[in-house]
Write a structure and sequence with these properties.
Elements lengths: L2 H22 L28 H4 L6 E32 L4 E2 L1 E4 L2 E4 L1 E15 L3 E7 L2 E8 L5 E9 L2 E12 L2 E10 L7 H6 L2 E15 L10 H5 L3 E2 L2 E4 L8 E5 L24 H9 L3 H10 L1 H11 L3 H7 L14 E2 L11 H4 L8 E4 L2 E3 L4 E4 L16 E9 L5 E7 L5 H7 L3 E3 L4 E3 L8
Antiparallel strand pairs: 1-2, 1-5, 1-8, 1-10, 1-11, 1-12, 3-4, 6-9, 7-8, 9-10, 11-14, 13-14, 15-16, 16-17, 18-19, 18-22, 19-20, 20-21
Helix pairs in contact: 6-7
């Protein structure tokens, strides 16, 4: 395999790993049991309900879609991968074929529960022209007999899936010297009669992975200067396109129902999904380890994915658990310029002596050749999207009141906005806005280190 092919394969694998996390986000939450209150309402993200369900008040909107700017040659093509979960209703029946909520056969229990089956539809490569592609996902009924150790019938597990139909629409139009791709995914299946029927006829966790050949996508979060206007005019409905793959990769775009950064990735310390990316793996793993044997048995009976979580946590080694605790980086390794003064060489950040070198009210950091410290005037250019409110401060002048550095060596500059009527109050209380050095522009001229 050539280096280019290997890099392409690695980029696709990284994009799909994130897409898998999106697909199963909220699928089943700790304590991973069917009788847990938080698992009574599932399927929160990317649900495309059947037509009419949203208007009737018992289902979700039938579509999602978004626009994104791109550059492409005349021969460019797109490969579009639609991914979602199809609901699979698992009904347990006793030996007389009567539906029951739970059935125990030997040491194993079976629970009536809604599972899900992964579905993927690949469209393309297709040229950058208007096209609508319909697709069908068949329904079905599968029956699994359950028997006692002596071979006599104990019951059965019946799994039922409703047929699904959908369509993906692509159109491309010129805008500001670029192209703008319009993608819309819709559930076009049969109408539903109630909420239970609606979720069974829905596409769950729906998202799209777009890959372009002989072209490149532009970020909607941090577009190149010549693409800023085109990116700002892009519309979105129930999803957000982000660049996928490693930093620098512009051939992959993930249309995600969950807001993400560009080039998202799964933490290398994470050994498997826990279906709740708003939690910390270490905390969830420790919680699973504290469950009783009875609780673990109930979780295993609830869902095969839950059983895999329990088994993985039970088998976790001390080294694997230590990796979940986080990454400790040496603050003395080469890194971008930090605070002035720095922690003395030979003193570790956890050593109390390091505290004597830290003075947030007088420390400084070099930004664009300018020593920025308390009293410096700067213009705010928020770009990291850590807080949506930061966008309201874009272009505003501010005054630096404190400069900090965390244990990873990253600088944080505390400011108060100059034309904020409450600036003096914020400074008195110590309630500052914090920005990274690359999110500010010094308004003072170059200064010598004092």
């Amino acid at each position: 395999m050539t280096r280019e092919l290997a890099e392409t394969a690695a980029a696709r694998a990284r994009a799909r790993a994130v897409a898998d996390a999106v697909l199963y986000e909220g699928y089943l939450l700790y304590p991973y049991r069917a009788n847990s209150r938080k698992n009574q309402s599932r399927w929160q993200f990317g649900v495309l309900g059947p037509p009419g369900a949203a208007d009737a008040g018992f289902g979700e909107d039938a579509g999602l879609g978004a626009q994104c700017p791109l550059e492409a040659s005349a021969d460019a093509t797109l490969t579009l991968t639609v991914r979602f979960l199809q609901l699979q209703r698992r009904q347990v029946r006793d030996a007389d074929a009567n539906p029951v909520p739970e059935l125990t056969v030997g040491e194993q229990s079976w629970i009536s529960w809604d599972e899900a089956v992964e579905r993927e539809v690949v469209i393309g490569p297709v040229p950058l022209t208007a096209t609508t592609t319909p697709f069908d996902i068949p329904g079905g009924v599968d029956s699994e007999p359950l028997t006692h150790t002596d071979g006599t019938p104990a019951g059965q597990v019946v799994r039922t899936r409703c047929a699904l139909t959908g369509e993906l629409t692509l159109s491309v139009e010129p805008v500001d010297g670029l192209l703008r791709a319009n993608l819309a995914l819709a559930n076009t299946g049969a109408p539903a009669s109630d909420s239970d029927d609606a979720i069974a006829r829905s596409m769950i966790g729906a998202h799209i992975i777009a890959e372009i050949a002989d072209g490149r996508f532009h970020s909607l979060l941090e577009p190149a200067p010549h693409a800023e206007r085109a990116a700002a005019e892009c519309a979105r409905h129930r999803c957000f396109p982000v660049l996928a793959g490693p930093p620098g990769e512009h051939r992959l775009m993930l249309f995600s129902p969950i807001i993400l950064y560009d080039h998202p990735e799964i933490a290398e310390q994470s050994e498997g999904p826990l279906f709740d990316s708003t939690e910390i793996d270490e905390i969830l793993t420790l919680r699973v380890m504290t469950m009783t044997d009875e609780e673990k048995a109930q979780a295993r009976a609830t869902d095969p994915h839950a059983a895999a979580v329990i088994d993985r946590c039970d088998a976790m080694t001390p080294d694997a658990m230590a990796r979940l605790h986080g990454v400790l980086r040496d603050p003395h390794l080469p890194r971008p310029p930090g605070l002035v003064p720095e922690i003395p060489q030979g003193v570790d950040w956890w050593d109390p002596l390091a505290d004597t070198a830290v003075r947030p009210e007088s420390d400084a950091v070099v930004v664009a050749g300018v020593m920025v410290r308390k009293g410096s005037r700067v213009r705010l250019r928020p770009s990291r999207r850590a807080d949506a409110h930061d966008l309201f401060y874009d272009g505003r002048a501010a005054r630096v009141v404190t400069v900090h550095e965390d244990v990873d060596g990253d600088a944080h500059i505390g400011v108060v906005v100059e034309d904020d009527p409450a600036a003096e109050l914020h400074e008195w209380y110590g309630r500052y806005l914090y920005f990274a050095p690359d999110e500010i522009e010094p308004l003072d001229g170059p200064t010598e280190e004092r």
